[in-house]
Design a protein that fits this description.
This protein is mainly α and 369 residues long. It has 2 domains: 25-126, no CATH class; 131-368, MetI-like (MetI-like fold, Orthogonal Bundle), CATH 1.10.3720. The protein contains 15 helices and no strands. The longest helix has 39 residues, at 220-258.
């Protein structure tokens, strides 16, 4: 097993390199860039999606210590640069590191990232690592609690549906699950706001933020209550689709195992239905459910939370990544990509190791041999 773990860790290196290389090459052909964005701001032509890049304590020309992104030493490629001193354009390029060839910038980025040195944001006077740490609590809260809630409900419900397959309970719960899956999370979030956050009916839950303004003055037990009170609506909206998917996955997995020969043999030996279900079927049926955990967690932790963060005014990594892409803040974009790619690979490895913990008969080394 140690040899298998070592091989998987070594395979992470070319995987990360491939992800970063493809992303870096794509950025080279993407229109626009931080230099063009500054030129547009100076010419009064900036129409970026957000105006927050100038609100983070820096100015448009500060923080350019990372050498990633797209650029060209020739000022002629920058539209709208007419009337600006070419020397000033060259200074901007040198500040952002665009005066170096693309391959030098790429290898410098890899060397820095190997040491978890992500530089500083182009448009905020703060290091990328500090910026990510600042947004991390929101994303951890959404991803962790949504995943735990989804699995805590969907696994028992899926098992019950498998046992009651074809019954009225199975039919009406399936209808609810399918409807839940069909409703977009952001649309359900708006409905929850209208109903329970002072939209048109009741003012029960807070509308924005992860904690109240006077949270620091509360006793510790009220801080916990306030924290979860703010999470009720966004977690409910996020868990809807994941809850439906994992419920049907659990049910189908258990149905497939229940129909196998070893289950019939166990029943013939006189084992109770509970012993058969949780002593034999559960271990095998849960393997496919565990296989979907890494993707579900990463999705909830990053991509799946973007719209929810926006709707509930939660300043997390999903919103940060989106704004960074729009604003061409490449150090933040590539740092998020690197961290989440690495996190996804590690979680997938942990998922495989969990297989062997649940079912010791699984041996990845033998399978590879």
């Amino acid at each position: 097993m140690l040899a298998y773990i070592a091989r998987r860790i070594l395979l992470m290196i070319p995987t990360i390199l491939g992800i970063m290389l493809i992303s870096f090459v794509l950025v080279q052909f993407a229109p626009g860039g931080p230099v063009e964005r500054i030129i547009a701001q100076l010419q009064g032509q900036d129409s970026g999606a957000t105006s927050r890049i100038s609100g983070g304590g820096g100015d448009v020309s500060g923080g350019g210590q990372s050498s990633v992104g797209a650029g060209d030493a020739s000022t002629s490629r920058y539209r709208g640069a007419q009337g600006l001193d070419p020397q000033f354009i060259k200074q901007l390029e040198a500040q952002f590191g665009f005066d170096k060839p693309a391959h030098e910038r790429f290898f410098k980025m890899l060397w820095d990232y190997a040491r978890f040195d992500f530089g500083k944001s182009y448009f905020r006077d703060i290091s990328v690592l500090e910026l990510i740490k600042e947004k991390l609590p929101v994303s951890i809260s959404l991803g962790l609690w949504m995943t735990l809630l989804s699995y805590a409900i969907s696994i028992p419900l899926g098992i019950r549906k498998a046992i009651k397959d074809g019954s009225s309970f199975d039919i009406w719960t399936s209808a609810i699950v399918i409807i839940g899956y069909a409703i977009p999370g952001f649309l359900f979030a708006i409905l929850l706001i209208v109903l329970f956050a002072g939209g048109s009916f009741w003012q029960i839950f807070p509308l924005r933020g992860l904690t109240s303004e006077n949270w620091a003055l509360m006793p510790w037990y009220m801080q916990i209550v306030d924290y979860f009170w703010h999470l009720v609506l966004p977690i409910t909206a996020m868990a809807l689709g994941a809850f439906a998917t994992s419920t049907l996955l659990t049910k189908n997995s258990f149905l497939d195992e229940i129909r196998k020969q070893y289950v019939l043999t166990a029943r013939m030996k006189g084992l109770s239905e509970r012993q058969v279900l949780y002593g034999h079927v559960f271990r095998n049926a849960m393997l496919i459910v565990i296989a979907g955990f890494p993707g579900a967690f990463i999705s909830a932790f990053f991509a799946g939370s973007l719209l929810i963060e926006t709707i509930f005014s939660l300043d997390g990594l999903g919103l940060l990544s989106f704004e960074s892409i729009v604003n061409r803040d490449y150090p933040v974009v590539f740092a998020n990509l690197y961290i989440f790619s690495l996190l996804g690979l590690v979680v997938n490895l942990l998922s495989d190791l969990t297989y062997t913990w649940i079912d010791p008969r699984i041996d990845f080394e033998t399978r590879e041999a």
